[in-house]
Specification:
6 helices, about 130 residues
């Protein structure tokens, strides 16, 4: 179960950044990132098994470090049409809004008017 949780949460981090900054490019980059997330999830699972940590907090800590590493890697390396990675755009004042979230879901081929996607889009500011 821990392996599946790590994989799903890692993919959720990836999807979150892809939705918030939908002007991404580079198909090879995204194939590589998905492979790294999958491989990293297996590595986290093996690490937890090898260390045989009895404390749930330590296991969760290892997983949180993994998710943070995914977010930082994507935030500083995801190619964008503007040529600036997502975190640089964020630092310059570009903030995701409902329009970019809608565009992000469309780029991921998820219906932005669907039940879950529309609720997520409503969490973003209008402008």
């Amino acid at each position: 179960m821990a392996l599946i949780r790590s994989l799903l949460l890692g993919l959720l981090v990836y999807a979150s950044i892809a939705v918030c900054f939908p002007d991404w490019t580079g198909e090879a980059y995204h194939a590589m990132v998905l492979s790294v997330v999958a491989g990293g999830s297996v590595a986290v699972w093996f690490l937890n098994k090898a260390l045989d940590l009895s404390s749930g907090a330590a296991r969760i800590g290892i997983e949180v470090v993994f998710y943070t590493a995914i977010a930082l890697f994507l935030g500083y390396t995801m190619p964008q049409k503007s040529g600036k990675p997502p975190f640089q755009q964020w630092a310059e004042g570009a903030r995701p809004n409902r329009g970019t979230a809608r565009q992000g879901f469309e780029r991921l081929r998820v219906d932005p008017n669907g039940k879950i996607a529309s609720k997520v889009i409503d969490l973003f500011p209008k402008r």
